[in-house]
Amino acid sequence: MGFAGRFLAAVVLSCVGAGSAHAALRTDFEVSRCSWEATHVVVANVVLDEVDKVEVVESWAGDLAVGTQIGIKRLHELRTEENRTVSTWHHGNEKPPRLVSAKRAILYLVGARSAEWRPAMKADDDQSSFQISLAWVEGEDVFAFQQIMNPGPLELTKVGTFADVKKETLRVLEGKAAFVKAVAAEKPEERASALEPLLSSDAWIVSWKAWEELEKLEGAALSVVRAILKDSARVAVHARAIAVLSRLGGVEVEAELTKIVESETAALREKKDFHEDVALAAVGRLYRFHTHDCEAAVVALRDLCATSNEKLALACDRVLQHLACSPKLRR
């Protein structure tokens, strides 16, 4: 179960009286986060005749060569029968093994060859354990510790196939390398330009980090954001671009946001290329302005979606109620 699913489960349980002292999202295994934080990523076989040692069979990141043996502190704790037991939750028609063999693992490491290896992600209650920085390879499938239900413990569950986990790991590592190169650019304009293609990365963490860094560039970021908003092929990130435009652009962007609302209203009316998330983002950001320059556009959208889109209608009403309490001043 992903973060969104676990969050929804938490809300439902809290609403029916689940004990809040025990209801909490726990940090668990997630390929993208592990890949971003790791300095080294390897596939390794457990050295069975030695405690807490593995031998590298594939190296995806870092300088550990195939055949290298390294120590993984407390690895034996994750190889007990209890920790090798696979959860029976959420496998659908699949029949997972009762236990993983725990003979081969994908390890997400932080460190150097001459130092003690540390986990890329630290567990909430045991920060030296590799519990959420390791995934066991069992045939073509990969198993790792995730919080399936909230409240609830971390459980060993299938997280994908080996091919899928490798593909996602390499995608994040490639994006991270491009990100590091981009932020090293000396001039803000150069950094913004280099970050621009990463904003639409298929790897969510690469996109998130790129947007976070872009926003630090303030004025240099605005030209990139405006170019994205003019590109219909990048509509998937328009809502995020609107948020950044609003935070960095000040009162001058009200007219731009109003035009976006008008454009989405026309699309909704014509039932062609309407994007609810973009409309919601633009309307939501208009709430911070006190002039009435956007009022007609918001009214038009509210009237059009009053009976067909409750969420958008409520967002429009919130802006209009705010304007009703503001003097009718125009810039």
Polypeptide structure, described:
- With 331 residues, the protein is an alpha+beta fold.
- The chain is elongated.
- The longest helix has 22 residues, at 162-183.
- Helices cover 44% and strands 15% of the residues.
- It has helices spanning 3-15, 31-37, 81-84, 162-183, 188-195, 204-216, 219-229, 238-249, 254-270, 276-286, 295-305, 310-324; strands spanning 40-46, 53-61, 69-71, 104-110, 118-119, 134-138, 141-147, 154-161.
- Strands 1, 2, 3, 4, 5, 6, 7 and 8 form an 8-stranded antiparallel sheet that branches.
- The chain is built from 12 helices and 8 strands.
- Residues 3-22 have low confidence and may be disordered.
- The protein has 2 domains: 3-168, no CATH class; 184-324, Leucine-rich Repeat Variant (Alpha Horseshoe).
- Helix 9 runs parallel beside helix 11.
- Strand 6 and strand 7 form a beta hairpin.
